[in-house]
Amino acid sequence: MKILKLTLKKKWFDMILSGEKKEEYREIKRYWIQRLCDEFKFEIFDPECFKHFDLIEFSNGYGHKVPKFTIKCEGFKISKGNTLWGAEPNMYYFVVKLGHIVSTSNLL
User: Fold this and answer.
1) 93: burial class by Cβ within 10 Å (0-12, 13-18, 19+)?
2) How does DSSP classify residue 37?
3) Which fold has domain 3-105?
4) pLDDT in tens, 27-83
5) Would you list the domain boundaries of the chain?
6) Under 8 Å CB-to-CB from 38, ≥6 apart: which residues?
7) Which residue from 69, 39, 68 is spatially nearest to 51, judged by alpha carbons?
8) For residues 46 and 77, is the Cβ–Cβ distance under 8 A?
């Protein structure tokens, strides 16, 4: 089972955990291309370029005792994001499509 680990600010962490936010955004930069895509296949808007992840582990901070939850990964796309969910207007992002929550830990 392949897990993508991502850290979030509290606002976005809480919105995803509550089910309000249905996708997460990452800028289209070399770092995220390397983490999310098969570089040999990478072409903008090509859905075949993405690596496969079964789950995403979101944490709110760093360390072992921080709040975390694991959610089903429903795939990726490249598109403009929702400004209510943290995206800049008219900017394209890697969009992480989120499924249901599988587990939680260290929630307050």
Assistant:
1) buried
2) B
3) 2.30.130
4) 999 899 889 988 666 666 566 789 999 999 999 999 889 999 999 999 999 999 999
5) 3-105
6) 49, 50, 51
7) 39
8) no
Q: What type of residue is 29?
A: K
Show the DSSP H helices in the chain as ranges. Answer: 10-18, 30-36
Nearest to 74 by CA among 47, 46, 92, 93: 47
Assess contact for 56 and 7: CB atoms under 8 A. no
Question: CB–CB of 92/28 below 8 Å?
Answer: yes
Q: Encoding tokens for residue 6? A: 């991502």
Predicted TM-score of the model (pTM): 0.89
Cβ atoms < 10 Å from Cβ of 11: 12
Place of tokens 């830990």: 105
